[in-house]
Each structure stands twice: as C-alpha cells, then as structure tokens.
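Hey, I was hoping to borrow your eyes for a little while. I've been staring at a protein lately and its backbone has me curious. You're getting the sequence in one-letter code plus the fold written as tokens. Would you mind checking whether the tokens look sensible for this chain? Here's the protein in full, and shout if anything looks odd to you:
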Amino acid sequence: MRRAVCPGSFDPITNGHLDIIERASKLYDVVHVAVAVNRNKQGMFTIEERIALIEEVTAPYGNIVVESHLGLLVDFCRDRGIPAIVKGLRAVSDFDYELQMAQMNHGLTGVETLFVPTSPTYSFLSSTLVKEVASYGGDVSHLLPEVVHRRLVERIAERKAQQ
C-alpha cells in the first residue's frame, strides 16, 4: 500500500491545501493529513476543530486519514510506516526552506519529500493571509471550502463579540 503524508497547520484549511491533498490522493492509496500541534501558538481553530473540518472537506476523496502530530514529522512517518511527504510549493521562496527540510528529513530517517507545484490559482494563498483579510471583512469565500468559510466568519464574529 502506497502511503504519504501532507503536513501543515491548516488553520484553516484552504482551497490551496485541498488542491495538494486531492492531487496526492490520486497518487497514493492512503494520504495522512498531519495537523501540526504548536503549543506556542493560539490558533484561530483548535486542533480538534481543524481535524473535523479537514475530515469533512476531504471525505469525498475516500482515502484520507486526518491526525494531529506533535514533534518531528519524521517520527510521525516512522511510527506509521509512511515513506513519503507531499508538500505544495507556491513560490521559489518556499523551495529554499522546503528543500532544507526535505534534506534534513531524508538524512534523519530516509523519508522522501515530493514537491508538488501549487495551482497558479492558489499560488498566493496562505491561511494567515486568509485570516487577516477575513478579519477586516474581506471576501475570502472563493479561497475556502464553503463549510470552512462559514466557520471562519463565525469565529471572527465570536472573537469580535468578546472584545
């Protein structure tokens, strides 16, 4: 069985993330989506909420397993017998950092990293940018799955009401 992992914070998952995950799902029998836990950051969504949203929007693919992970991604891969990491590249600036990570990961455990160029439609897209634009009332509905957009708008309204 061919297995790979698509890692990220996914706070929230965007259409750019989905583009990479869907493409990986066509190449691998099982794709693990590893939601990174960063205890030093307060996300827009909890890890559990991110997992639930990702499970909902990737359900049509039929071969996605969504889990959180804390620590090194190569340990996540080793523990599950996953030989490949699939990463989307938006721009040349992504490549410099990701190449270093890929070389480190391969050196640590032999796991391979496959780079997938992001669709030009999403080449500028990041979760951080989406959250910032949405927090100022900008329309980001075309950049997110419908359910994710709805939850993002709700969460921003909840946070504004608490201020």
